[in-house]
Structure to design on (169 residues):
């Protein structure tokens, strides 16, 4: 593991100078290959800039240097519309990886969900990324969902107070 980096995590609404970079990274990572234009992602990301509680985006940065992002959105998996909210679009710049930034972004996004009154947060991941999230304390409740064979993971605000269901409701 590389040495830890100095960084802060801010709500994108407080650091709008990172908006274009966040839109570009989300587009490059998940939408470009499917033929969606960058403008489509930018318009979707603008929803994160409103005063609404969800959706919102976080940015990891070292002063003016962008390091990564994560979002909280209402729904991230068309096959599971009943689940909300989702931690989504977790991205860390290649030169900043393996330094705890992704874990910190996921943790902050999850804690922010709980602070908003949600008792559970959801996340979906490709099979090769699922173990990473499990190491962060997420629990897989379903695998092989949808065309990308995604895992659905959950984290409860107080996991010690109840049982976690292993199948979708």
């Amino acid at each position: 593991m590389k040495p830890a980096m100095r960084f802060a995590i801010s709500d994108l609404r407080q650091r709008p100078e990172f908006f274009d970079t966040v839109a570009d990274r989300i587009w490059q990572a998940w939408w470009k290959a499917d033929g969606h234009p960058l403008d489509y992602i930018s318009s979707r990301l603008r929803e994160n800039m409103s005063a609404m509680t969800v959706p919102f985006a976080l940015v990891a940065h070292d002063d003016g240097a962008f390091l990564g992002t994560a979002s909280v959105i209402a729904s991230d998996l068309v096959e599971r519309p009943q689940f909300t909210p989702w931690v989504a679009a977790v991205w860390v710049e290649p030169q900043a990886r393996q330094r705890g930034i992704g874990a910190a972004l996921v943790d902050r996004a999850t804690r922010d969900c709980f602070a908003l009154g949600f008792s559970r947060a959801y996340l979906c991941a490709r099979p090769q990324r699922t173990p990473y999230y499990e190491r962060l304390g997420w629990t897989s409740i379903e695998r092989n969902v949808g065309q990308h064979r995604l895992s659905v993971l959950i984290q409860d605000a107080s996991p010690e107070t109840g049982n976690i269901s292993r199948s979708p409701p």
The chain has a mean pLDDT of 90.
